[in-house]
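Ticket #4471: structure output looks truncated?

Reporter: J.K.
Steps to reproduce: submitted the chain below (99 residues) through the standard prediction queue, then opened the result file.
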Amino acid sequence: MKTSCKILKASQFKARTAICSGSSTVVEDRIFKTIKAMEQWIYRNDSDFGRLILNRYALIENQWEVFTTIGKTTITLSELKRIVGYLEDEGLKPSENAK
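Returned output as attached by the reporter:
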């Protein structure tokens, strides 16, 4: 699995889950030391009746940042926004050779 530069700087990981029981819903966070431990826990608990994985976070420079895995690449939301911004600003401009 490829990882982004920011994810490599993460010191902790957090999974935010919602547990539905009858008419009530409890949101809880679970902290992990490694991304691998978090993903293993999610894999084992994602199919639990009533449990929904809401978000995954990485603690990078004392700030929790949302991240996801697309294909085999793990990337933070801020990095994804930067890439999209580049595509909108620069990457989608017609080339000088296009007529």
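Triage note (M.O.): checked the attachment and the full token line is present. Strands lie at 2-3, 12-21, 24-32, 51-60, 63-70, 73-76.
Status: closed, working as intended.
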